[in-house]
Queue: 3 jobs
Job 1
Amino acid sequence: MTPDGLVRLVAGCALQYPGDRFHDELPRLRAALAGAPDGPAGLLGAFLDGAEELGPVELCARYSDTFDTRNRRCLYLTWWTDGDTRRRGLSLVRLKRIYRDFGLEYAGEELPDFLPVALEFAALREEAGTELLQEHRAGLELLRLALAESGSPYARVLEAVCATLPGPSPRSRAEAKALARNGPPQELVGAGSALEPFGPGIDPPQDLPADFPAALTAGFPSGRTADLPWPTTERQTA
């Protein structure tokens, strides 16, 4: 797995509801960052250090206070593009199809646009995942700015995620909103679409790193193709 992939995996773990298990796995998350670029690794390492100091109960409370749709700190990507409209349902169906087209069965309980799910996909399928995150770049940057404005330690996690994407991050909400209107520059997206399915010639998906805490991943079992049914129920906690 590439260094950017490791950043995305660790960030995806950090952006899930922490519970008790998250603190148990902190040593392995830190070990995974050993192969990541210094800048994003430093940001994520600082977040992990702060999470350890807070402890499980305080971190869970901080998470619940941070992420919701009422104050525009939402972890569901299509909320930023579609809001609570009928169009959002089509976007969610498209995401499930993309994951399956690239050889990964989504078996998580969250909606498929939950940011940790997209980050895990972007780690296991880096080219297609980068394009998917670029499609939602404006929402990611607006979330990053909102977290920074609120003084949240989770801003470091979003900053690390955005550092894995091509091009500089917007410096203000106005620039991020302009990105939402116009989309990223063409040279940062590429002429062809990596999200076009490969058809029958799909390469075998990557495995997660051997020492990575798979219990903290978002919904692709061990990073391998799994003949699992779609979840019968999906919950949205935002």
Note: Confidence is low (pLDDT under 50) at residues 185-192, 197-205, 222-238.
Job 2
Amino acid sequence: MGKTYERIDGRLRRFIEDQPLFFTATAPLSGDGTVNLSPKGLKGSFAVLDDLTLAYLDFAGSHAETIAHLRENGRITLMWCAFQGPPNIVRVHGRGEAVLRDDPRFPELLTAFPDIDPTRHGLRAVIVVRADLIRDSCGYAVPYMAYEADRELHAKRFAREDDASLSAYFAKKDHIATSIDGLPGLPLPLPPTGAGAAGAGAGAGAGAGG
């Protein structure tokens, strides 16, 4: 029997933090737009910021559908499945935001991910999600599967890129700056690494926000 939760704490939080894999789902407002579903992994790239706020690192890839959808409407669902132990599925429905590298909040958000070297993965943004509805379900049909280790391919591929080459890589892709449905995606060229820290200083002096 499913249950609705008021906050992410205790056993629920431990379950979420223990999973090596989760999924994100977003969609545009258009009824004939493309629904996007993505798997997310890499140990240390997800964090519970408080009882209602979650965040994960958005790394280099071939698409930017999640960022585009969040920029348009903010709707997002995160899902975790128990592939070992007692069956369980947890979904967090909420509102998300892509905090980009030149946002003054970006450096502080990165401190929530101490085990990740952002220079090795082509970090594009921190996705921050505020939960509106938290619920679980049985997961009786989810199979047992064993986690062995994270793949090393992503870090090997993108560790050799600097800010300029990473922007050039994204510019060659069809669905980075714009989504499959033509929505604005990741702004290019990428702000240089550390631009958020500089922006924070400028914002403090000028009274401007990100």
Note: The radius of gyration is 18 Å.
Job 3
Amino acid sequence: MFRKAKSIQSSFEHIRAFTAIIITCVFCLCGFTIYKSMKLAAATQNRIYVLANGKVLEAFASEKKENIPVEAKDHVKMFHFYFFTLDPDETVIMSNINKALYMADNSAKRQYENLKENGYYSNVISANISQKIEVDSVSINVDQYPYYFRCYARQKIVRATSIVTRNLITEGYLRNISRSDKNSHGFLIERWNTIENRDLKTVTR
């Protein structure tokens, strides 16, 4: 009888140990599942899906500080594109200039007003001149804030009788501001200055 009771007690202890092991495994499995779910949710939050031409494209969100050089260079390029791309149409000129002025401070506005007072834009319209710009490179110093930049570009001025290519070098500083529809990179160009703007060649048409 004692032997039977001892056998029952031993079986009960085995069952209890086995149950404890099962419960521990279940808790570990639940913890692992919760951890993986949270990790997947965090990764999903950094994904952006963009619909373009009927196709869903996946993009990844990242902190602005990781993309400062790329975004800063693109901001400088787009500013120069809008400021220096002109056609003999007042609507086009004003549209581009307005876009450029949202990306820079009064230093750009002063240059625009000087050109306007000197009749530059009126001459573009009356003489049917088209002006294009190609940015060769933009150097950015992100080690100090505000970020210093220097832009190297070439202007092509198309007149009725000639095409003039000019070398353009400008410099300035970039300050962080809030992003908006009219300033998607969240930078503002300050102390913008033209270092060089000289003729390289003239081709007769």
Note: The mean pLDDT is 85.
